[in-house]
UniProtKB/TrEMBL annotation:
InterPro entries hit by this protein: AAA+_ATPase, P-loop_NTPase, T2SS/T4SS_dom, T4SS_GSP_E_ATPase
Residues of the AAA+ ATPase domain: 273-427
Gene Ontology MF term list: ATP hydrolysis activity
Annotated stretches, region: Disordered: 46-75
Pfam families per the UniProt record, alphabetical: T2SSE
Protein name: Type II secretion system protein GspE
Source organism: Trinickia symbiotica
Cited Gene3D superfamilies: 3.30.450.380, P-loop containing nucleotide triphosphate hydrolases (3.40.50.300)
Family from the record: Belongs to the GSP E family.
Segments of skewed composition (Low complexity): 50-59
PANTHER family: TWITCHING MOTILITY PROTEIN PILT, TYPE IV PILUS RETRACTATION ATPASE PILT
Length: 498
């Protein structure tokens, strides 16, 4: 049992701001002395235990299978983390820990100290727990301290692309484009809210009953959306779009069947020729991934300004300025919108402006930028077809300036946007670029487009995996003359004919 006198002798905890990069409730000031750093636990310097020897040496948590041990194991996991035994061990760990010292230690070192406290308490109170159950309890506590609770192992699983928390009892993941339920659970709704608030606080944002929705990001860049009660009726909701640890290139996308090698050549030339490109697709279709892949062809000598709600882009160029929006504070002041950032970016002497997603009145300013010397700019929109993307741009421009005539808006779109890439997540879970569409100008009051490439699926061969082929229209692209200016016309025509 941990004694209060020893705890006071070790150092008093001081609570302050939360930080998701620190252990849970690690809101102490960094004033630990050498003795505290050496002895973070009142029970004494952590020693190796049988449980510690059983733990993996690597610091990141190991990925978990979708249903480890089947339903019985899932039920046992749920019962254990919601039991009085778990609460007792967790309380003993936090009451005996010197947070100032723990901040200076690695995950594995803190884990060993937690294992020692748990082992001593189990032995003293003669609790009936297997080594596997002890290890599970320690994992849950460590994940609470260093990460985002029970879903921390999912971040280490490279097969998982989305993590969807629907209250304390449901955690879904997307693997291979398909959703599946995991056995992971939170202790209660307060546990989910606590994790959500730590994620938001790490990027200077807040989420509570007065402000129940927030967009944030994790330390690795993964995008997070949080919705709390009373807006979320069945408990707090956390939606995480994972940040790919591997840099996805167009070449790798061609190997995976997302795009054809010929399309890669044409898109490389289009980016080098500084075409203004709009990437269109549904939610989760891979628009940002494709935008990241395209950005690799931007010349390193160019100054690029990126604008996003939650920073996701991974540009590799040396001269990149990243801007991020800011929500209003509790008094309704201090908000910085994407439109504000686009206007400000024009004063920053950018060669290209890359907008993570166009969803509102900033569309007017983006088109203005594309038409005023910022060639090579890129953005994404939500739309189901290239033609729908044009219509959506029209609607968003009208939101910004309803007095503009529709003909003027369409002429501005036809002049500003050179190419639309349509990407789709198909029923087999594979993302494919279904259209590479060029805007050829205006004819009367209609925006003229031509498809350079399309994906044609084989309707006669219905299988679980979608069958089809990428087809080239073998046309001379409208931007061939622009490619000639950059010395790439021959390469473009050769790619279209191959």
């Amino acid at each position: 049992m941990v004694r209060a006198a020893l705890r006071q002798a070790e150092g008093t905890l001081m609570f302050g701001r939360r930080n998701a990069s620190m252990p849970i409730d690690a809101t102490v000031e960094r004033g630990a002395n050498e003795a505290e750093a050496a002895h973070p636990f009142v029970a004494g310097k952590s020693k190796s235990t049988p449980l510690a020897q059983e733990a993996a040496a690597a610091e990141p948590p190991a990925p978990i299978p979708s249903s480890p041990g089947g339903p019985a194991a899932a039920d046992r996991h749920e019962a254990l983390i919601r039991s009085e035994t778990f609460r007792t061990i967790r309380s003993a760990v936090f009451s005996s820990m010197n947070m100032s010292a723990a901040l200076t230690m690695s995950r594995q070192e803190v884990r060993e100290g937690i294992e020692q406290i748990a082992a001593e308490l189990i032995a003293k109170d003669r609790l009936t727990l297997s080594l596997a159950d002890q290890s599970l309890i320690v994992d849950e506590i460590v994940n609470d301290m260093f990460g985002i609770g029970p879903i921390e192992p999912l971040l280490a699983d490279e097969r998982v692309t989305d993590i969807l928390v629907n209250g304390p009892d449901q955690v879904f993941v997307e693997r291979g484009g398909k959703l599946e339920l995991t056995p992971l659970k939170f202790r209660d709704n307060a546990h989910v809210v606590n994790v959500a608030q730590r994620i938001a606080a790490a990027v200077g944002r807040r989420v509570d009953e007065s402000s129940p929705m927030v967009d944030a990001r994790l330390a690795d860049g993964s995008r997070v959306n949080v919705v709390l009660p009373p807006i979320a009726l069945r408990g707090a909701s956390i939606s995480i779009r994972k940040f790919a640890k591997r840099n996805i290139t167009l070449g790798r996308m061609a190997q995976q069947g997302n795009i054809s090698p010929t399309m890669v050549d044409v898109l490389r030339i289009a980016t080098a020729c500084r075409l203004n490109i709009v990437i269109s697709g549904g939610t989760g279709s891979g628009k940002t991934t494709l935008l990241n892949a395209l950005s690799r062809f931007i010349d390193e000598s160019e100054r690029v300004v990126t604008i996003e709600d939650a920073a996701e882009l991974q540009l590799q160029q040396p001269h990149v300025v990243s801007l991020e929006t800011r929500p209003e504070n509790s008094e309704g002041l201090g908000g910085i919108s994407q439109r504000d950032l686009v206007r400000n970016a024009l004063r920053m002497r950018p060669d290209r402006i890359i907008l993570g997603e166009t969803r509102g009145t900033e569309a007017f300013d983006v088109l203005q930028a594309m038409n005023t010397g910022h060639d090579g700019s890129m953005t994404t929109v939500h739309a189901n077809t290239p033609r729908d993307a044009i219509t959506r741009l029209e609607s968003m421009v009208m939101m910004a300036n309803g007095n503009l005539p529709l003909m003027s808006i369409r002429r501005q779109i036809a002049s500003a946007v050179h190419m639309i890439l349509q990407i789709e997540r198909m029923r087999d879970g594979v993302r494919r670029v279904t259209h590479v569409t060029e805007i050829a100008g205006m004819e009367g009051d209609v925006v003229i487009t031509q498809d350079l490439f399309t994906f044609r699926y084989n309707a006669s061969a219905y299988e679980e995996q979608v069958r089809g082929a990428f087809e080239s229209a073998s046309l001379r692209p409208v931007f061939a003359q622009r490619a000639a200016y950059y010395g790439l016309e021959e390469a473009l025509l050769a790619a279209m004919q191959s």
